[in-house]
Amino acid sequence: MESRWRDRLDELAEPAVSDTADSGGNDMVALVRALVEPFDDMVRSPRGRVMCSLLAQTFLDTDSPRLRTPWFGTAPFEVMLGRALPHLTVHEIADRWRLVFTLLLQLYGRPQATGHAAATEPSFPAAETVVAFLAAGLTAPSPKG
User: Fold this and answer.
1) 3-state DSSP percent of the chain in helix, strand and coil, to 5
2) CA-to-CA distance for 45 and 47, rounded, in angstroms?
3) 17 lies in a domain?
4) Domain count, the chain
């Protein structure tokens, strides 16, 4: 997944010269799209679904993932979220990132069907639906006002 994320996310991780509060929503959609589209692409093939399932098992079964690469840690995402959502606390940023990543793993990494159920193509929501849902959750007002 890292190779699928790297180019998209490296570009987004660079602070724009014209960063403004008004661009936060657009930046958030671009960030979420960069996260979702590789998952969505992968689950369109049987091999990709297996890879997503293995990825989900690896990350959801432990608080300390075994993969140590920049895009599988929380820091780069929390920095980007903090830049786009400066009104949120560090704790809220961390919680929202954890919720987004867990949801992506649960959605795209769900266990593979076996037997008769395996003969049918699994159903996943449209990528744009997932992007809109996650971006809305990330940009929701702070519960603390």
Assistant:
1) 70, 0, 30
2) 5
3) no
4) 1
pLDDT (tens digit per residue) in 69-116: 555 667 778 888 888 888 899 999 999 988 998 999 999 998 766 655
Residue 15 tokens read as 């602070």
Tokens at residue 101, please?
């990543």
CA 42 → CA 5, 14, 38, 134, distances in Å? Answer: 12, 26, 6, 19
Judge contact between 93 and 137, C-beta under 8 A. no
> Among candidates 134, 120, 119, which has minimal Cα distance to 39?
134
In the prediction, which pLDDT does 132 show?
96
Q: What per-residue confidence (pLDDT) applies to 54?
A: 87
**Full domain range(s) for residue 72:** 2-12+23-113+121-139
Confidence category of residue 19, pLDDT binned at 50, 70, 90: very low
15 burial level (CB within 10 Å; 0-12, 13-18, 19+): exposed
Give every CB contact of residue 114 below 8 A, 6+ residues apart in sequence. none
Kindly give, in sequence order, each residue whose CB lies less than 8 Å from that of residue 3, ignoring residues fewer than 6 positions away: none
Let me know if residue 18 belongs to a domain.
no
**Nearest-angstrom CA–CA distance, 121 and 107:** 15
